[in-house]
Fold this protein.
Amino acid sequence: MADLLTGFVLVFEPLTFALMVFGVVIGIIIGALPGLTASMGIILLLPLVYRLPANTALVMLCGLFCGGMYGGSISAILLKTPGTPSASATVLDGYPLCEQGKAGKALGVSTIASFIGGIVSTICLILIAPQLAKVALKFQAADYFALSIFGLTIMASSSGKNVVKGLVAGCIGLLASCVGIDGIVGVNRLTFNNMYLAGGFALLPVLIGVFAISEVLTQVQNPAGFTGSSVQEVKNMLPSWVELKGIMPATLVGAVLGVFIGIIPGTGGAIACFLAYNLAQKFSKDRKLFGKGALSGVAAPESANNATTGGALIPMLCLGIPGDVVTSVMLGALILIGVRPGPLLFVENTDIVYSIFAGMVVIQFLMLGFGLLAARYSPHILKVPYTLLMPIIMVLCVVGSFSLNNSLYEVTVALSFGLIGYFMKRWGYPGAPLVLGVILGPLAEENLNRALLVSNNSWSVFIQRPISFTFLLLSVVSIGFAVFSSRKK
Amino acid sequence: MKETKRIDVWTGVALMVLSVVVWVLTSDLPTPKRGIGPGDYPRVITAVLFVLGLTMTISNLISGYPAKGEKTNWLYLGRMVLMAVMAFAYVRMLKFFGFPLLTPFFLFGTIALFGYRSWWKNAIISVVATGIIFVLFNVIFMVFLPTGKIF
């Protein structure tokens, strides 16, 4: 409790608070604009992040994460185009409400449901994460290796339609992490005697390339893009007491479901929102209204997708395994700041952990306030022309990758990974496993080596230890399940 | 769909070739008596990659290799290629011209490529956006921006 109070004190420091507000507002705006995601927003802010104190940077990114998750509902309701994949189910009832002239009411419900989902997930984060970290402190090298493999396989098997393509992306990421001077013996590996390649591929240019530059290259193909010029006016946002009582069951169902979906690595808001929508429809008294403009049809998915934020932070903070694409980018940001997520974080950097906890509580209230405000002015936000936005994002990508080492080589790496990311997207390969491969590659190699050194080159160590055996078994099950379900389709 | 299927076959072949090349490149790296050597880890990955490439090629061939792929929209693809070429050229020329001098021209070109046809507005936006980015990053946040021989 004392740690949490210290966290609140840190969060209310003027710079931290101001940047947290900045993160929430920018997150809402980025989330509202179709094609821009929270992960892209975090990437664009990375040059600023590693010049800030770690806890300040992290709460700003958490604000952007939660704001981005909520912001996706604005364009889903007003334009029938979800701003982020997590708002896909919100379209089903949000847009019919907009057609009935109730856009304001739909946005109000979406904001309140997002707030409740966020609060529930933050409470779960505060309660579950420290306990899980205590368990994770018992992990040994073999367990960490198995955990890295588990994280990679579950991300590869769930982030795309084709499990083989997900695994290929993960392997390419692992292979990319091998380039450079090897950490065990210190010899050049796959560098072709190039002095730049000897340093390997830094994470930041890879993130910028795969998630941001590839998006700009995709958008340039269709320069007309979307237009938000004919968006209706937003008024009468706050629901009545009867309406609020009516949406509460769906909101709570969505919140609980969202937290648990968020905890499972490799899932995320896009899955949670549809599951919550289906569940809310099944148990609703007005199920016939679903699809035609039910307020519960907006509340359930919005509560669920915001509830995944706290859930996704649990495996990332405790185990160093991201819960979804955005947390994999956040994991990269943490490493850039010099913080290695994992159980030791809860022992060595309690101030950072509890700043995140306290920050997540405050962020939900900021999101409620600024969300209602942003929803009111959303018709103006949605008028920002893509033709201007995307080229500026490209320049920001150049600035971001250059700022890592003040080197144009990093920019060239980012552009190259942007091209790779573009073709991966075009041919159906998910980008997240590639990035995760780059992040987890060194961790997996180091722990594989350490486990084999301790066990005198006996590979049986991975099945003799219950934790590593369980993770390897789960890896096989996740791939098997993904193959089975893709064949069924 | 058909385009992807044809490409999947060839990507599978390319992955197998890549696996063999990496295997060969890492074969002469030292191997310690205990633990893993620098070449062992990439070789394990390439072995998995080879199997995945083989799986992709065979599964797509078995399910029927399409005789003719879907038509590629060359105009769309051309725009993407032009954007990529402009970006690489911009980065190469930054060494000479520097960020503040070159960025307005890059922005002008890319905004035009995105279909913005108001030339005067485009020019003003390009200069103003460069100025804002320069002040925000270089002056306020003290983030270094690329400098060239000229500026």
Remarks:
- Residues 12 and 116 of chain B are 40 Å apart (CA to CA).
- The helical segments of chain B are 2-25, 40-62, 74-97, 99-113, 119-140.
- Chain B has two domains: 2-62, 74-140.
